[in-house]
Task: inverse folding
């Protein structure tokens, strides 16, 4: 998984990654790993949460990675399909995936897998200087 993250420009050593995975085990969500042969081919991390404007929780995909050599083989599509099923099982009413405005390949993938645009998103750090 560290290799998948590194290909996306997100460096994490094995110990740090293991700690993050342990923290995810206690959160409301799911971690899905695709394996074709050998090391993981794809990774999807999803969380669900309640809001005031929806009767059922919303599931949000926070990480979707497919290895560079494994792309265009349907792995991402299968991960999203499995995520949708897990979200339905958890009682969620919708599934979100945030794609940066300059990530055209990801935006095309989102449209091809049934996602529709839902407006911009803003984020801010909760730590000074971060």
Result:
């Amino acid at each position: 998984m560290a290799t998948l993250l590194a290909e996306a420009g997100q460096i994490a050593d094995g110990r740090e990654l293991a700690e993050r995975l342990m923290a995810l085990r206690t959160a409301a969500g799911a971690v899905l790993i695709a394996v074709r042969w050998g090391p993981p081919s794809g990774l999807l991390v999803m969380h669900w949460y309640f809001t005031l404007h929806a009767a059922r929780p919303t599931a949000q995909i926070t990480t979707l990675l497919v290895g560079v050599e494994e792309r265009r083989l349907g792995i991402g599509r299968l991960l999203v399909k499995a995520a949708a099923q897990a979200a339905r099982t958890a009682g969620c009413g919708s599934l979100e995936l945030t794609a940066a405005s300059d990530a055209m390949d990801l935006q095309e993938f989102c449209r091809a897998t049934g996602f529709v645009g839902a407006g911009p998103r803003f984020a801010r750090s909760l730590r000074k200087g971060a």
